[in-house]
Each structure stands twice: as C-alpha cells, then as structure tokens.
Amino acid sequence: xxxxxxxxxxxxxxxxxxxxxxxxxxxxxxxxxxxxxxxxxxxxxxxxxxxxxxxxxxxxxxxxxxxxxxxxxxxxxxxxxxxxxxxxxxxxxxxxxxxxxxxxxxxxxxxxxxxxxxxxxxxxxxxxxxxxxxxxxxxxxxxxxxxxxxxxxxxxxxxxxxx
Length: 163
Fold this sequence. Notes:
By secondary structure, the protein is of the alpha+beta class. It is about 20% helix and about 25% strand. The chain is built from three helices and eight strands, in the order αβββαββαβββ. The protein has helices spanning about 15-25, 70-80, 110-120, and strands at about 30, 35-40, 55, 85-90, 100-105, 125-130, 130-135, 145-155. It starts with 16 loop residues before the first helix and ends in a 9-residue tail after the last strand. Pfam families: DUF3293 (PF11697). InterPro entries: DUF3293 (IPR021710).
C-alpha cells in the first residue's frame, strides 16, 4: 500500500503525526558527526559511524513520553549493559528533546528492534551506510513494527527535499 515516496509501510499504520514529525526532524549521530533523515541520497559521504549493519537506540523517554532525568539515566545504563554489540555514545534530537543514544555497530535489524521494544521505545533506526530504516515499534501506537525507508544526510549538507 503506497503512502508517499520514501515510505514503505507493510500492512499500513503510522504513529501519531506529531511524533512522526519529531523523529523525521531529529538529528542523529555523535556530537561531532550528525545526520538527518532525507528522501534523497546525496549531500556527502556517510557519517563515520554509519558502516555495515548499524542501529540507533535510546532508553530515554519511552514511547515519546517525557520522564525525569534520574529515571532516564538509569534506563540508559541498563541499555548499555544489555548491549552485546560494540557501540558509540550518540545523541538524538536537539534542544529540550536531546537525549543520549547508543550507535550500535554490526547489529541486525531484529536485534535493534528487540532492544527498542525491551526499553519501550516508539522507534529505532537501522541502516547500512547511508541507507536507513526508521522502524516504528508497538509503543508508537502501531500494531507491529513498521518500516519507513530513508537516506542519511550529513548535518552539514543542504536539504534535498521537503518532508
């Protein structure tokens, strides 16, 4: 069922439009090497953290609902301990919604989804190089995991297409 260019949603269903807009507008990556989701490929090389089979997951603010700092930090420590993959410390979002994340290397899609579900997240990212999937999880309001396909655009590259 085609919805729009750049989106593949097997079986249909997307989360709340405001939540989706926040994920699509967020910056992902490390403090020194960030990227945005974009419909078009281009704008430079993939960030240095975006190799083969990478994922981005956080334990902060499950289901997109704000939680206190202490609870978020404790959950993030549990996420670090639960990761069986090499990871880099990452940062998702900016401003009031900026939160720590883990950028996992050499991870399979099903494994990053399982971590996101275990920590009550609305969505996770999984990719290979510049190709990335925004994977909506049941905590976002969808019935089962749903995938939107995007490209990474380095944070310094110009926007190629309006969302």
